[in-house]
Each structure stands twice: as C-alpha cells, then as structure tokens.
Write a structure and sequence with these properties.
The chain is α/β, with parallel strands linked by helices and 340 residues long. It is built from 12 helices and 12 strands. The protein is 31% helix and 15% strand.
C-alpha cells in the first residue's frame, strides 16, 4: 500500500507528525510511505497528479489543500486519512462527497484528554481552588469571604453535546453520583449514556442545571447559541466549563456574568481569543480559571516512543483499509457540515 504525506514547507514538516515521529516510524514498518515538501508556488493540477499515484493521502493541520479535481478523477487514491480532527481547511465538500474517496479523521482520540481537562476544571472551580490560593497567599485573609465550595453528589450538571468527549466526561462523573442532563439534537434518549436524561432544548438544559459543561462542536448552528438569557437561568454561584470552542458562548454575555461575580467558570477556550490580552482585567478575577486551549495536551510523563490515541487511531484506520475492511471514523457530508 502506497501512502503519501505532503507538506507546504519545511517549517510545517518540522511542526507536524513527520519522519522522526513514532507514528511515521510505525507506518514505515508496515507500508510504503513517501513524504514530499511542495514548492512554495506549487501547481495544484501537478499536485493532484502526484496524489493519484498513491492509495492513501495523509493530512492534518496545516496540510496543503487537496485538489477538488480528485473527486471525479482520483487515480489510485481511495483513502484520505486525516491524522487530526478538523478537515475543512484543506478538504472540501466535493472531496468528502466523492464516491471514489473515503475521508477519515482521528475519531474519539481527543476525548480522553479533553474530558480529563473538563473534569479538572470543574473540580477546581467547584472547590473554589483559586480563592483558596488567594487565601493562602494573603496569610489567611481573603477579599472574597463568600466562598461556595460544593460536592458532585446530587449536583445538577448539564452537558451541551454528547459526542465522544461528552460520553467520556460522563464516565468520569459517574462514581460521584451527580444528576446529569444533556442536550444534543443528534442523540436520542436511547443513545444517551446510562443515567443521563435527555432534554429537548437549551432552555430546558440551563433551567435544570447548576453546572453547565460545553462539549458541542462549533458550527453555524451552535455559534453564540449560549446566550445572555440562557446564562441568566443558572443559579448564583453557577459554574460554566468550556473545553470545546469559545464562540459557542456569547462572549459579551459571559464576560458580564463573570464580571459581576454571579457565575464561576473554567475556560480552556474563549472568544474572540483563547488567551486574553495582558491588561485584560479578567486575568485577575478569582471566579475564573483560564488555561489557554492547553489543558488537554499531555506533556509530562509521556514516553517518547509511546503511541498516543491519535496515532493509534491513524494506524488502525490504515490497517483496516489495507485489509479491505471499512475504516472507523468516516467523515460523511452531514458530519463534515457539523464539525468544528
């Protein structure tokens, strides 16, 4: 099986999964892998002709755009295996809709780290850890005496989005026995994890919940869908956790609630930027924890030669394809249009 990985430039090759990565070392043991760095002014038609010589094209963040002409004339190409998640920046609807090409991505790979991050933020905010730190740094004198530490037991938690990350997050919650509600128009009650009650609207979700955890993807449907009116339904001291995308929440409405001190938040992502300006007063608010879209990244304690979930899913996709079996995590048009 012949596999191609193309880069727009040498810098992108250095920053991406490439020659020296554990993933590519494993791929080379099993298949015929070619890596190419394109000329800065590469011709798209010539690039398409190169791709046609291979059975599989590997893509990921910062990949060169896949030429649309491959949709009707793919040559040998049958699979585009996107190593990472989103594909919209380099793979068009026309390619996804092609009857000749299967497009896949990393599937549930990020669910472990992102769910861990959401759980960590929830626990830290719920236990008022920022205020405890302030208390300790000021010799036991706190400017915020109205601390509101809580327990997960019987706490009413709403989850917006019940994909792979939402399900993994529910698994982490379960031993602590909270009451869990979820809103996801694409998941029926029968498909919900055990013990999770499906609600039919965001209004119902927010009105039932003391804690709101965002696990939805960002799309035209979800952008700014968490409004001022919805946030006002959370009780005083209520908690917002967002490890999905900042733009799902109306940024002005969220900032107003946090500035007033009425709500608390653990935010790995924010809008318009995941990390506010240096002089932004939000950096000083002790009812907010910000982690700059980084809380899911495993850095410490990872062996250099250990395959992560992204790499495992990529290798599994290639194995299934090489055996003539349908791969997991296929991206069809419906999924493509709902992806972040």
């Amino acid at each position: 099986m012949k596999i191609l990985r193309a880069y727009k430039n040498e810098t992108d090759k250095e920053r991406a999964y490439g020659t020296e990565s554990t993933l590519f070392k494993e791929i080379r043991k099993l298949y015929d892998l070619t890596e190419v760095v394109l000329d800065e002014n590469y011709d798209e038609t010539e690039f398409a002709e190169l791709i046609r010589q291979y059975d599989v094209l590997l893509t990921m963040w910062r990949s060169p755009r896949v030429p649309d002409e491959l949709a009707d004339n793919p040559g040998n190409l049958k699979l585009i295996c996107n190593i990472t998640g989103s594909v919209g920046g380099w793979i068009s609807e026309k390619i996804v809709a092609s009857p000749h090409i299967t497009v896949t991505n990393w599937g549930d790979a990020p669910s472990h780290g992102v769910a861990e991050g959401a759980f960590a933020l929830l626990m830290a905010v719920m236990k008022d850890i920022p205020l405890a730190i302030e208390h300790a740094q000021n010799n036991g004198i706190s400017a915020h005496p109205d601390r509101k530490p809580a327990s997960l037991y019987k706490l009413r938690i709403g989850i917006y989005g019940m994909g792979a990350i939402g399900r993994k997050f529910v698994d982490m919650l379960r031993p602590f026995m909270p009451v869990v509600f979820a809103f996801d128009p694409y998941v029926s009650q029968e498909q919900m994890p055990e013990g999770v009650t499906k609600v039919d609207t965001l209004e119902e979700l927010f009105s039932h919940s003391q804690v709101m955890v965002i696990h939805a993807g960002l799309s035209d449907e979800t952008r700014n869908s968490v409004t001022k009116e919805l946030l006002s339904m959370l009780p005083d001291g209520g908690i917002i956790i967002n490890t999905a995308r900042g733009a799902i929440i109306d940024p002005d409405a969220l900032r107003a609630e946090l500035a007033s001190g009425r709500l608390r938040a653990g935010l790995d992502v924010m809008a318009p930027s995941d990390w506010p300006d240096e002089d932004d007063p939000i950096r000083q608010w002790t009812n907010v924890i910000m982690t700059g879209h980084f809380i899911a990244n495993p850095i410490w304690g990872v062996d250099a030669d250990k395959l992560d979930f992204t790499e495992i899913n990529c290798l599994e996709t290639l194995k299934l394809f090489s055996e003539g079996k349908p791969p997991k995590y296929i991206i069809d048009l419906d999924r493509y249009r709902r992806m972040t």
